[in-house]
Automatic annotation (TrEMBL):
InterPro entries linked: AraC-bd, AraC_XylS_family_regulators, Homeodomain-like_sf, HTH-like, HTH_AraC
Domain HTH araC/xylS-type, chain residue ranges per copy: 171-268
Species the sequence originates in: Paraburkholderia acidiphila
Superkingdom of origin organism: Bacteria
Keyword terms of this UniProt record: DNA-binding, Transcription, Transcription regulation
Name of the featured protein: Helix-turn-helix domain-containing protein
Gene3D superfamilies for this protein: Homeodomain-like
Residues annotated as transmembrane: none
GO MF annotation list: DNA-binding transcription factor activity; sequence-specific DNA binding
UniProt keyword Transcription, yes or no: yes
Length: 288
């Protein structure tokens, strides 16, 4: 986990530029951080270092690195450091109406105690709780919010909706993403091409293809990127041609998908390709 920077002992707060109304922050506090207050949003986050303590509902809760905090709208809470070292954390604030676009009128999910170590919520918040210095593509954010809404409902035990899904729409979306994977893809353009709203489309796409539209698009871009890399194209050019914002954007998704950075993958995979060619050449019959 990210350590507490000993050079930054004073309290601080960083705020990312809001995207489609979703606020993201990262902060460090010592001692008493803030008094009792409440939001009309969900406050969902994770402690990066230290112990984050807060009064919530009927007791005091302690959040440690590796856990996910989920504070329900309109629930009073405060915040303070659980130890003398202070605590560092990231948080997003999401209007209940955003989740309702996904849940379709089902009861808002409630996570008892305000803190959970459920791996489903950890995974679902990964994209939304990245460093605030890293921008989030609106397509990626929308996709991540849909995944988070489903994860919250699953962990809270909210009954799933009864839906057969719309395969034709999901298929049109897949074909559109295949055709446009190396171009800038906007949510509006995808909705227009398919004729469905983003939330319904996201649900159907997961149902029929086992992943989200944004992750499907990212994987197709990574497929193209690997091919370009093996052809000797510079990584910065690969990122631009494959449809990523920049090389850092490509590197983040490449590493998250394959567990290895692009440059290292290229050294390994490129060398392996050369060895295969050499073996084929050396095993040809004499006179071939």
């Amino acid at each position: 986990m990210n350590p507490i920077d000993p050079q930054r002992r004073a309290d601080w707060l960083l705020r990312a530029k809001p995207v489609a109304g979703i606020e993201r922050i990262e902060a460090f506090f010592q001692g008493k951080a803030f008094a009792m207050h409440r939001h009309d949003t969900y406050a969902i986050g994770r402690t990066l270092a230290g112990v984050q303590s807060f009064k919530y509902r009927r007791g005091t809760t302690h959040s440690l690195p590796g856990r996910t905090m989920v504070l329900h709208p309109d629930e009073p809470h405060d915040g303070q450091a659980g130890t003398g070292e202070g605590f560092r954390y990231r948080m997003i604030y999401v209007q209940p109406a955003v989740f309702q676009q996904v849940l379709g009128g089902r009861a808002l999910p409630f996570i008892e105690g305000g803190v959970t170590n459920d791996p489903r919520l950890w995974a679902a918040t990964e994209a939304l709780l990245q460093q605030v210095s890293q921008g989030i593509d609106p397509f990626e954010q929308s996709d991540a919010l849909a995944e988070l809404a489903h994860a919250l409902a699953a962990v809270a035990g909210t009954p799933p909706p009864r839906s057969k899904g719309d395969f034709a729409s999901a298929q049109r979306a897949r074909e559109y993403l295949d055709a446009q994977c190396q171009q800038a893809v906007s949510l509006g353009a995808l909705e227009h091409a398919v004729g469905r709203d983003r939330w319904s489309l996201s649900r159907d796409f997961r149902m029929f293809y086992g992943t989200s539209p944004y992750r499907y698009l990212t994987q197709r871009r990574l497929d193209a990127a690997r091919t370009m890399m093996l052809r000797g194209m510079p990584l910065a050019d690969v990122a631009a041609c494959a449809g990523f914002t920049d090389q850092a954007h490509m590197t983040r998704h490449f590493t998250k998908t394959y567990g290895i950075a692009p440059a290292r993958w290229l050294r390994i995979a490129g060398g392996a390709s050369e060895r295969v060619v050499t073996i084929v050449q050396d095993t040809r019959l004499p006179g071939a």
